[in-house]
Amino acid sequence: MSRRLVLSGILLLAAACKPTDDPPAPAVSPVAVPAEALAAIDSGTLMSYVRVLAADSLMGRAPGTPGEDKTIAYLTEQFKALGLQPGNTDGTYIQKVPLVGITVTNSPTLTFNKGGTTESLKWRDDYVAWTKHVATSASLDKSPLVFVGYGVEAPEFNWDDYKGQNLAGMTLVMLVNDPPLADTSKFGGPRMTYYGRWTYKFEQGAKHHAAGVLIVHETGPAGYPFAVVQGNASEKFDLATPDSNRSRSSVEGWISLDKAKALFAMAGQNFDSLKAKAATPEFQPVPLGVTASVRLRNNLRTVNSRNVVARVVGSDTAHRDEYVIYDAHWDHFGIGAPVNGDSIYNGAADNATGTAGLLTLAKAYAAMKTPPKRSILFLSVTAEEQGLLGSQYYATNPIYPLNKTLAVINMDVLNTAGPTKDLTVIGLGASDLDDYATAAAAEQGRKLRPDAEPEKGFYYRSDHFNFAKEGVPAFDPEAGVDFVGKPEGYGMQKRNEYTESRYHKPQDEILPDWDMSGAVEDLKLFLTMGYRIAEAQKFPEWKPGNEFRAIREKQMQAPASAPASTPAPAPASTPAATKP
């Protein structure tokens, strides 16, 4: 899940990247991918990696636990065994990522008070809250509650839910997602913008110096049930910052819909009526005349977590300092609250499959007799589930300059249900990377399709986004929905089953009916994309009108800063990576 974004006034990605049913034929040179690389991608290889990564022995792969140590050791061993070179300029496969872990140690009651009337909310059942302050405690002490609608300030849409009011020291109650408008020229219509993401809501609290922020959970607009929110009752991570995160609101959290309605009734208001008013540009903050009190006691620890980086050095000495990145997050939630007697959150689909895909692609590139002209970086990032922290750290502290980075191809949950006639691309139409994907898909007899659930804001929920906001063209694929030999609606049925029954739960385990043949096709498509990008005459670009285009253009005009130390390339007479 995406969490921190410094661009608080970010524009709508989807509006600038509207997909079309029939994209124009791409001007992509059909460079042949080495046959030995394509042959290296198969279901057996992929599942051999998944079985290790999703095993109970890795303890759910949580950052800062023995499960991280085991995961990092395994990934490093595999990259070494494949013959890939260390990805860090210090000669290691590790990029250290400094994190701070904060765990609420009590089960605090959140109390709403109006006059002599109180409403007590039970920890985890009715609400979940935390603090990002690096402190042993955090609290709200009779903080006035103010309903600020969707909490959005979007000047390009002439939208301001705050109307210039001073809300310092208050606790803001907000709705999740974007304002639902009939006018689809504002916000994203059915597509969630970053304004709708919970991360943006908490950033708004900090911007307005609020003491606290409480988001009202609704399953439809959020895109997941309250059980997913309850997972936040465990340890929370953030990147270590000089101010110990004191710029954040003291308390951030969610309340259930039922308790939100009870709060509004306590305030003499009707939730549904105020929600309807919040969907109008005339909306103004509504003081509820109710105060909130809670005290969180925290356990603190610093964690030196790790990204794992490995590389195949390009064969062209003039271009081997330029990179195509494949990324996937290795982390999940570790050991947590039991669900149906199981407490290990294995994260088999999310994201043992993506990490296994990263290793499988590494094997494919290692099998090449001659690597592509440019170098390939395999980046396995930490703390995605804590807010994309590992990718945020790399994107803001890159080992190799971002203006020497051509593209990022992200893998987060591979297809486990068999072959498809399509491939879903989140933000389809954003950049030239979609042209490469269209050409590769066509060679497989497949098509690209836009996100089937744009209202859930998936573009802001995976690691590619940290690269996109820094200007690097980033590709975010998902499984297709038109399954070969399956009835219409089968794909959405499988997606819904996963979201409702296994997403972010211990039940995300390898299932007997998994069919990885579709994932194999997808990986071959990603291989084809990355290889052709690495062989291309020019860097891919964002499409005209995309909000990241200007960032990239400015970035490309700046001189590239050299890595901390220049890595020694492989001898010109031998491939950078050889098959073991």
- The 3D shape can be described as globular
Largest sheet: 17 strands, mixed
Look at the structure and give the CATH class of the largest domain. Answer: Alpha Beta
The CATH architecture of the largest domain can be named as: 3-Layer(aba) Sandwich
Tally of discrete structural domains? 2
Helix content estimate: 25-40%
The CATH topology of the largest domain = Aminopeptidase
- Cα gyration radius (Å): 24 Å
Structural class: alpha/beta
Low-confidence stretches: 1-26, 564-580
Q: What's the tally of helices?
A: 16
Gap between N and C termini, in Å?
36 Å
The count of strands amounts to 21
Describe the structure concisely.
With 580 residues, this protein is of the alpha/beta class. It has helices at residues 13-16, 35-39, 43-53, 66-82, 198-207, 219-222, 226-230, 257-266, 271-278, 348-366, 389-396, 433-443, 464-468, 490-501, 517-535, 549-557; strands spanning 85-86, 94-104, 110-114, 117-121, 127-130, 137-147, 153-154, 159-160, 171-175, 212-216, 236-239, 251-255, 286-312, 323-329, 334-339, 342-345, 375-381, 405-410, 422-426, 447-450, 474-479. It has two domains: 56-86 and 313-557, Zn peptidases (Aminopeptidase), CATH 3.40.630; 102-300, Glucose Oxidase, domain 1 (3-Layer(bba) Sandwich).
